[in-house]
Specification:
Layout lengths: L1 H8 L3 H32 L6 H23 L7 H15 L13 H18 L1
Helix pairs in contact: 2-3, 2-4, 2-5
Length: 127
């Protein structure tokens, strides 16, 4: 009985389109945050052994985001740029964590950034 109620709630084409728009825009917003983080990691690790893998990860993240933009055009899903902008600002705000260092990076920044990128990659893979 519950399954029928749930199924009928999502059965209209307009509802499915709205849900698809929300879902894809959430992915686009997260992708923008991942691109920003990946590029910052690549800049941070210039002239280190981590330079090449960081730059490659940043490039792949940008390519994935660009692919999503193309995918969104097929079902005519508009990009909701305010959502993307809010996500990007949240990522920038997260950089200003209170770690006792106003100018320099925390020694834990690399670990936290890598963990965030790994979560993003694993999330994409699980889809």
């Amino acid at each position: 009985m519950e399954a029928q109620r749930s199924e009928s709630r999502f059965s209209s084409a307009a509802t499915r389109q709205r849900l698809l728009t929300i879902s894809l825009n959430d992915h686009l917003a997260r992708g923008g945050g991942g691109v920003s983080l990946g590029r910052r990691m690549a800049r941070t690790h210039r002239s280190t052994p981590a330079e090449a893998p960081s730059a490659e990860l940043a490039e792949e993240t940008a390519e994935n985001r660009d692919s999503l933009r193309v995918i969104m055009t097929a079902p005519d899903v508009p990009a909701r740029w305010p959502r993307v902008a809010v996500r990007r600002q949240a990522e920038r705000t997260a950089r200003g964590k209170l770690n006792g260092r106003l100018v320099r990076r925390s020694p834990l920044s690399d670990i936290l950034e890598l963990a965030a990128m790994r979560l993003g990659v694993e999330g994409k893979t699980s889809l």
